[in-house]
Design brief:
It is a single chain. The protein is an alpha/beta fold and 67 residues long. Helix content is 28%, strand content 15%. The protein contains three helices and three strands, in the order H-E-H-E-H-E. It has a three-stranded parallel sheet with strand order 2-1-3, with helices on one face. Helix 2 links the parallel strand 1 and strand 2. It is globular, with a radius of gyration of 12 Å.
C-alpha cells in the first residue's frame, strides 16, 4: 500500500536496494536524480511503463514538487 515517507525512510529503502522510481520530467531527472533511480515521468506512467519495474522488490516512488 502507498504511504508517505520521510528522508530517513527513503535513505533506508535505498540502502536496502529497493527499486527507486523518480516520476520527474526527463529534464529534471537528467539534471539531478537519486543514485540508481529509474525515471518514469508521471505523465507517461501507465501499465505498460510500469512493466519495467521489478515485481519482486519494494518500490519507492519519488516526486519533487513546489507548492
Amino acid at each position: 500500500m502507498p504511504e508517505d515517507i520521510g528522508l530517513a525512510d527513503m535513505r533506508r529503502l535505498v540502502e536496502e536496494r529497493s527499486q527507486v522510481v523518480e516520476v520527474l520530467p526527463p529534464s529534471e531527472y537528467a539534471a539531478e536524480h537519486l543514485p540508481g533511480a529509474v525515471n518514469i515521468p508521471l505523465k507517461s506512467l501507465s501499465e505498460a511503463t510500469a512493466a519495467q519495474l521489478d515485481t519482486h522488490s519494494r518500490v519507492a516512488v519519488y516526486c519533487w514538487d513546489y507548492f
